């Protein structure tokens, strides 16, 4: 995992966009973003048990797997949004980026690769993209049944309970 301030240069979202200004994992923790390196499935299982994750599945995000839907899906994933539940991803193969909003509403880019597990709190604005290799295989973990509904950033979304609770926690 590598985290840094997004450079805000307009170019392909799949580029590194590394501003050269690193973000300390402690700062991510203050945002409610938790990171673990899990060299084995046993480490993932221990976190799943500790956090009461009961369900899981795997997803491959790539043009080969998703076909003509790939580019449209990438646009959906990269549109700024939040979820009403935690978002947990364990990278099985490939690489990708989660961008999360800082307390000051700036983008922090988090590069993930094989063995990285990230937990985004409910209510945090974020987005996702693969890197320029256009491939990631990830395990998604859930406390209950999967909820896929992204709430795209808009003034009315700021009043959603998950967002209000998140704001009060940071």
Summarize the structure.
Helix content is 22%, strand content 38%. With 170 residues, it is of the alpha+beta class.
Describe it for me?
22% of the residues lie in helices and 38% in strands. The chain has 170 residues and is α+β, with helices and mostly antiparallel strands. The strands form 2 sheets. Strands 1, 2, 3, 4, 6, 7, 8, 9 and 10 form a 9-stranded antiparallel β-sheet that branches. The protein has a two-stranded antiparallel sheet with strand order 5-11. The two termini are 22 Å apart.
Keywords for this entry:
single chain; 170 residues; alpha+beta; 9-stranded antiparallel β-sheet; two-stranded antiparallel ribbon
Major sheet: size, sense and barrel closure? 9 strands, antiparallel
Low-confidence stretches: none
**Beta-strand residue fraction:** 35-45%
Q: Helical content, roughly?
A: 10-25%
* Total strand segments: 11
Mean pLDDT: 95
Quote the distance from N terminus to C terminus.
22 Å
Shape: globular
- Count of separate DSSP helical elements: 5
List the secondary-structure elements in sequence, H or E: EEHEHEHHEEEEEEEH
Q: Rg, please?
A: 15 Å
How would you classify the helix and strand content by structural class? alpha+beta
Query: Oligomeric state of the chains?
Result: single chain
